[in-house]
Amino acid sequence: MKKLALVFALLLIAASGCVPRGPSDADMATRVAQILTSYPTNTLNPAISPTLPAEVQASPEQPPTAAPPTVEPPTATLPPTETPLPSETPLPSLTPLPSITPTVTLTFTPSTVPTMVPGDPVGKLGPATSTDPMDSPDTWLWPLGASEFTDMQFKDGVMLVTALKDISGWRLESKKTLENFYMEMIARLEKCSGSDSYGIIYRVPQLQPADQGYLFGFTCDGRYYLKSWDGKVQPEGQMTTLIRPTTSSAIQPGERVFNRLGVMAIGSRMILYANGVLLTEINDSKYSKGYWGVFINQDYTPNMVLRVDQMSYWENPRP
């Protein structure tokens, strides 16, 4: 603004003729141009220049800073439609489903008749020729008391046979002999482990000495086997394994668990069952008939006890 006022004053002086003698018009124009060019350009007076907002003012050294993005106001949260449970309130527990009863009933009491399964010999053969409920030693003739290998007692309606040595020991019923038959025993071991075993001894040719016959047994860990014994072989007798110990899901393993052992002997055929389920069949003709009874064999458990609740036999069965 100052330079414009000065130029305007010079022009008035020249126009009024009061200007002392000086430069010509051309010189004056040149001077005015020099004055105009002697001032810096684009200079704003801070006092009167408009002030831009700080966030959009640009400095000469860098481009203007972009305005920050607009922040949307938070959306109001509606209250939940359901009231949450307090943290200390326990959730209701689920009711467990009832356990499924297996097809084969493996646990028995002295008065319980086991449930039959398809192919169960008991279901096909009808009433047994003879049954011993083990109420006393007199229904079938059993020897009581201790011997070198076992002890036998009857108590509370069951037969109890105790092992006295780590070797198979047996007790025989002494009333009659059997040739072709199906026989079952319901029994359990009170305490046992591993290969501790028990079972039926049958086709023993002589009652005294009872040194020959077949032994069909179950082990504590759920296996079955079949052996033949010939105590007349010198010097200490000979035990022959006809069926090696074999695991079967039809046998319930463990102590204080009842199983039904069943053997059908017809001529040289021997058909083995566990709880009414067919296990296997084998042929052997060494012994054709004889006495029968129970045996026990302890491998791990001292003074192991066999509990026998019932035995039955059917003569001349049809397989």
Summarize the helices and strands and which ones pair or pack:
Elements: H1 2-16, H2 25-38, H3 121-125, E1 130-132, E2 145-146, E3 150-155, E4 158-163, E5 169-178, E6 181-189, E7 197-204, E8 212-219, E9 223-230, E10 238-247, E11 259-266, E12 269-274, E13 277-283, E14 290-297, E15 305-315
Antiparallel strand pairs: 1-15, 2-3, 3-4, 4-15, 5-14, 6-11, 6-15, 7-8, 7-14, 8-9, 9-10, 11-12, 12-13
Mean pLDDT: 77
Q: Order of helices and strands, N to C?
A: HHHEEEEEEEEEEEEEEE
Main structural class:
mainly beta
What would CATH call the class of the largest domain?
Answer: Mainly Beta
Q: Enumerate the spans where pLDDT stays under 50 for 5 or more consecutive residues.
A: 1-23, 32-71, 73-112
The coarse silhouette is: globular
C-alpha Rg (nearest Å):
56 Å
CATH architecture of the largest domain: Sandwich
Helix coverage percent of residues? 10-25%
User: How many helices does DSSP assign?
Assistant: 3
β-strand number: 15
Under CATH, the homologous superfamily of the largest domain reads Exo-inulinase, domain 1
A few lines on this structure:
By secondary structure, the chain is mostly beta strands.
What does this structure look like?
The protein is mainly beta and 319 residues long. The chain has two domains: 2-37; 121-315, Sandwich (Jelly Rolls), CATH 2.60.120. Helix content is 11%, strand content 34%. It contains three helices and 15 strands. It has helices at 2-16, 25-38, 121-125, and strands at residues 130-132, 145-146, 150-155, 158-163, 169-178, 181-189, 197-204, 212-219, 223-230, 238-247, 259-266, 269-274, 277-283, 290-297, 305-315. The strands form two sheets. Strands 1, 2, 3, 4, 6, 11, 12, 13 and 15 form a nine-stranded antiparallel beta sheet that branches. The chain has a six-stranded antiparallel beta sheet with strand order 5-14-7-8-9-10, with no helix packed on it. A hairpin with a 7-residue loop joins β9 and β10 (238-247). The model is unreliable at 1-23, 32-71 and 73-112 (pLDDT under 50).
